[in-house]
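Q&A log
Question type: sequence-to-structure
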Amino acid sequence: MASCRKAAKLFPTDAAYLAGLIDGESTIALTRRHRTDQRQLVVSISNTERPLLEWVLSVAGVGKITGKKTYQAHHAPGLTYAVSNRQALAVLAQVAPYLQTYKAGRAQLILRDYLRLTPRNGRYTAKLKDEREALIERFLAVKPIRT
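Response status: OK
Response body:
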């Protein structure tokens, strides 16, 4: 069962540091758990330093840390902190002013339109479904600038 916890209110310094982690080590994505599901918001940070991800979990107050499989003996075990849906939205709202990469554009789109286009009951009108698909297309079009 999903957690009903709310994201913690971040101190500005914590929000700025978390934004740096998101800019450098993170993904802001609209993903599907199953092929037939609607896409949902996920913010994830991958790292090999458990204390860093535990700090993120502690200051955010929401999300979870999971391990990733190691394929080479000389590789450090990878870990991922992830938070999704409305909890991710609450975290993004606090870190968005500090984001510096293309992820700032993705965060702005999500913060502006995600709640309006994601009914809690999962029932979409044809118009709402079309608007949500347009949001997803705009979101996925925001990519890093290659130099």
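Response note: The chain has a mean pLDDT of 90.
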